[in-house]
Specification:
With 414 residues, the protein is α+β, with helices and mostly antiparallel strands. It has two domains: 136 residues, Aminopeptidase (3-Layer(aba) Sandwich); 182 residues, Aminopeptidase, CATH 3.40.630.30. Helix content is 41%, strand content 24%. It has 14 helices and 13 strands. Strands 1, 2, 3, 4, 5, 6, 7, 8, 9, 10, 11, 12 and 13 form a 13-stranded mixed sheet that branches. A hairpin with a 2-residue loop joins strand 3 and strand 4. Helix 3 packs antiparallel against helix 9. It starts with 9 loop residues before the first strand and ends in a 21-residue tail after the last helix.
């Protein structure tokens, strides 16, 4: 721990893109001093999230910055949307947390930052989602005031460092899975002798692979009757392009294909920092579905993790069956919902007890139509807020992780 003076920090609240860019050097310096930093806390990730997604979706930037003298020791990335204070995010798969200097004073600093946030930020309620345990916010949440744990789950991970190599790890997997993997490799060797696993390290190749993944994700979604896949929107596409390009330039991106020449069977990417790999996205070509290409791709990606010294292969949030097949452990995520003042407490109580019709009855629609536009805008805002709170309240709370990660179906991952 770095010894720090026990006095109140000086706080500012960053509310616009210009001030956010100016914060860059101090943000990067603080991130480099964190005990367990991850890519989703970097200045570049958060800046891209704001620029490409959060700002375009009508949110307001609110980043609480705490300084001890000239030294930035706390950054709390937040935003306000639909009247709710949230952690700044890209609306994609990512973990969230406060950045706070390792110190015995960290909990005290977070409490100070929260008092500043409640005074300076106009939001009656807060919803802090996707916090990976352990984290600074969860350890301080009880001291911030009344709140309720909502949502969360278990992220399957592989603890690669517990095994000497791929063979030792594979010996723990279901025999039927390994047998089928061998069978599929033999089949492919016959019909596709040029099949290989290739890492992507050039920007122009990276963009082509991203386009390929988006196309085949969309195709799979259409076949499954799920056309509204979360990342196939212009803002998310732009964000992912910026985030992966930045990670590639810094040596943090691991993108690869399983291909026979120019014919890609499966492709995907994730982010590696130190001994941790965060698996973000992959897809496969449905024309080759009989070969289970995404499952074969995943095998090669895990083997690459062994070769590069990865200790934890993190599948990220989502309890899909295919993740549980490979997992040896789980990481818990939690979300918290609470009020910042008496108004927020009232609205939360109302959201918990009052049903909210998806469509107003005819009488209310006629009444709404004659209201002045200013009042209609305020009413729309409040209804959006209520729907947001009710959706948060309905989030499932974390249950115990599956006792046997390998008990899931061997269905090919999508």
């Amino acid at each position: 721990m770095n010894p720090m003076p026990q006095h109140r920090l000086e706080f500012t609240v960053v509310c616009d893109a210009t001030a956010l860019r100016a914060l860059g050097p101090a943000w990067q310096a603080l991130w480099s001093r964190l005990a367990n930093p991850h890519v989703f806390q970097t200045f570049e990730w958060c800046c891209n999230a704001w620029r490409h997604v959060a700002s375009k979706r009508g949110n307001q930037l609110r980043i609480v910055v705490g300084r001890s003298g000239e030294r930035v020791v706390l950054i709390w990335p937040m935003m306000v949307g639909q009247g709710v204070l949230r952690m700044l995010s890209s609306a994609t798969l990512e973990y969230r947390d406060i950045l706070v200097e390792p110190s015995e004073q960290a909990t005290h600093w977070i409490a100070q930052a929260w008092q500043v946030a409640k005074r300076a930020i106009k939001a009656d309620t807060y919803l802090f989602q996707n916090l990976r345990l352990p984290n600074h916010l969860s350890s301080s949440i009880a001291a911030l005031g009344p709140s309720a744990g909502v949502g969360g789950g278990w992220c399957p991970v592989i603890r690669l460092h517990q095994f000497a190599n791929w063979d030792a790890y594979a010996a723990t997997l279901p025999k039927s899975l390994i047998s089928d993997q061998r069978r599929q490799w033999k089949r492919l060797a016959t019909v596709m002798p040029g099949l290989s696993f290739q890492l992507i390290d050039k920007p122009e190749e990276m963009q082509a692979v991203m386009d390929w993944i988006s196309h085949h994700k969309r195709q799979w979604g259409d076949l499954q009757g799920k056309p509204a896949i979360w990342f196939i929107t212009p803002d998310i596409t732009q964000f992912l392009q910026a985030a992966t390009a930045q990670a590639l330039s810094e040596g943090r991106l691991v993108m690869a294909t399983l291909a026979n020449g120019d014919d890609i069977l499966s492709a995907g990417w994730g982010f590696q920092w130190g001994s941790e790999f965060l698996f973000h996205m992959f897809a496969y070509d449905v024309r080759h579905a009989s070969f289970s290409p995404s499952r074969l791709f995943l095998q090669r990606l895990i083997q690459h993790g062994f070769e590069t010294g990865v200790h934890t292969f993190d599948f990220m949030p989502g309890e899909e069956a295919y993740k549980r097949i490979w997992a040896t452990d789980y990481i818990r995520t939690v979300s918290y919902l609470g009020a910042t003042n008496w108004r927020g407490a009232m609205w939360l109580q109302l959201a918990r007890t009052a049903p909210l019709a998806a469509r107003p009855v005819a009488e209310l629609r006629r009444w709404y139509a004659v209201l002045p536009e200013r009042l209609r805008a305020r009413l729309r805002h409040r209804l959006d807020f209520m729907r947001s709170m009710q959706a948060a309240i309905r989030l499932p709370t974390p249950s115990a992780p599956p006792s046997d990660p390998t008990a899931a179906s061997h269905e090919s991952p999508r």
